[in-house]
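Dear H.,

Thanks for agreeing to be a second pair of eyes. The structure we're designing against is below in token form, covering all 430 positions.
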């Protein structure tokens, strides 16, 4: 694709990067067929190629974002299915991230939108605040029908019970069982530790049982993915995380930073790119990205123990977009589940997003609901006894309405190798 940035514009590193991305696109349109919003809406501007043209025009002209552009970019899930499909290696993720920052800097959204987005960006990354808000939402749930649609959706998505904080998420070291094979840091996360503290508990049990020493490093907080996808780069938070992890790596050594929420894993693996022009942090950020691993990658390296129980349960593995498209991890978790004694079945249209996509199910509730219903139909069609996924967002999105219990992949691996039965599965004969 030809581009028309001026020489002055190309002194900006973001423009230089976007120009390189745009030039790689040969506008073949292969990506449109696998784009969930194009599949639903059939509008070229709601597919990757149309969005690429809109972003090109906005960035080259350096004009403020228009309502039309914002509508189509806001509808993009950042699921990155288009990047898996693209034969030319177009890095749509970095282009749309640049576009979202430009929108944030140049476009004034309607008041309710501004309030909702500011609330999400301020509260979700802070577990204490988020827990307080969830308690408030739980009390206010019966009022949902009386509230504006956006607020009603947020209330509906609030969980019905808020577990207490888990001791696992405090800064500490968990010793490896048996000879130590690895020393890893665990990203405790933000939203997940409030809604599903059991996921980190299962992850620590699984890792230590397989010979990894696990450290929860003081000073690490939210990875920044949620505000990042809203065009608000949380660089101070990212730098604080980097300082904490690099400090730990230099003092005591680290073989990996383990992430069990794949949206966060995709973000960590991009820290090196996000801070590439920061003279003080570029090198350290690249080191953190090189250390970042999804839990399934680390478990493959450690080698899964023989299952302690043989359930033979039929598991539909839901491949989160941030894992399969963002990190190109698809077969690893399935192989681990099979090795753990589960019978893993493929889900039709497995490349399509479930509609969760960070805060998308709150900012674009209608499209998110349509995608959720489609995903639930596809899951039901393979008649699973359990659904497994590696991302809290998908699990929260699909739990309400799924025909089978939905759990994190680590909970099944932990259970099969000697841990407790996942609470979502409840009491069965197995
Ligand atoms: S598949 Fe790749 S090269 Fe083709 S239009 Fe889409 S982004 Fe451009
Ligand atoms: S990221 Fe997903 S929704 Fe956005 S253009 Fe690509 S395929 Fe479509």
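And this is the sequence the design step returned. I haven't edited it by hand at all.
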């Amino acid at each position: 694709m030809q581009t028309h940035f001026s020489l002055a514009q190309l002194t900006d590193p973001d423009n230089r990067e976007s120009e390189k991305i745009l030039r790689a696109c040969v506008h073949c349109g292969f990506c449109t067929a696998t784009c969930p919003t194009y599949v639903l809406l059939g509008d070229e501007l709601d597919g990757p190629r149309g969005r690429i043209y809109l972003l090109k025009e906005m960035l080259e002209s350096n004009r403020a974002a228009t309502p039309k552009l914002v509508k189509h970019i806001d509808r993009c899930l950042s699921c990155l299915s288009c990047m898996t499909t693209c034969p030319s290696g177009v890095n749509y993720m970095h282009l749309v991230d640049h576009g979202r920052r430009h929108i944030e800097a140049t476009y004034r959204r309607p008041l309710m939108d501004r309030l909702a987005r500011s609330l999400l960006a301020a509260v979700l990354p802070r577990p204490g605040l988020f827990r307080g808000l969830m308690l408030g939402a739980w009390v206010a749930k019966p009022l949902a029908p009386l509230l504006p649609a956006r607020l009603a959706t947020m209330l509906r998505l609030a969980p019905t019970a808020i577990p207490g904080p888990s001791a696992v998420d405090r800064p500490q070291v968990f010793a490896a069982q048996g000879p130590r094979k690895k020393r890893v840091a665990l990203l405790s996360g933000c939203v997940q530790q409030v809604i599903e503290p059991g996921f980190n508990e299962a992850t620590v049990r699984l890792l230590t049982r397989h010979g990894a020493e696990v450290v929860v490093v003081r000073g690490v907080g939210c990875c920044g993915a949620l505000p990042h996808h809203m065009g608000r780069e949380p660089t101070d938070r990212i730098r604080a995380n980097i300082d904490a992890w690099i400090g730990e790596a230099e003092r005591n050594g680290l073989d990996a930073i383990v992430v069990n929420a794949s949206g966060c894993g995709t973000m960590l693996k991009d820290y090196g790119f996000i801070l590439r022009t920061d003279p003080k942090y570029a090198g350290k950020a690249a080191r953190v990205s090189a250390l970042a691993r999804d839990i399934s990658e680390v478990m493959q390296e450690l080698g899964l123990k023989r299952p302690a129980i043989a359930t033979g349960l039929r598991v539909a593995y839901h491949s989160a977009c941030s894992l399969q498209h963002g990190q190109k991890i698809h077969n690893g978790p399935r192989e681990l589940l099979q090795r753990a004694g589960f019978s893993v079945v493929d889900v039709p249209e497995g490349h399509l997003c479930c509609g969760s996509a960070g805060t998308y199910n709150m900012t674009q509730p209608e499209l998110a609901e349509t995608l959720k219903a489609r995903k639930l139909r596809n899951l039901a069609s393979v008649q699973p006894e359990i659904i497994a996924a590696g991302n809290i967002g998908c699990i929260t999105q699909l739990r309400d309405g799924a025909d089978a219990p939905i759990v994190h992949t680590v909970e099944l691996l932990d259970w099969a190798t000697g841990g407790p039965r996942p609470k979502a599965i409840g009491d069965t004969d197995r």
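Two observations from my side: The pocket of iron/sulfur cluster (ligand 2) is lined by residues 35-37, 48, 51, 76-82, 92 (CB under 6 Å). The radius of gyration is 21 Å.

Warmly,
E.
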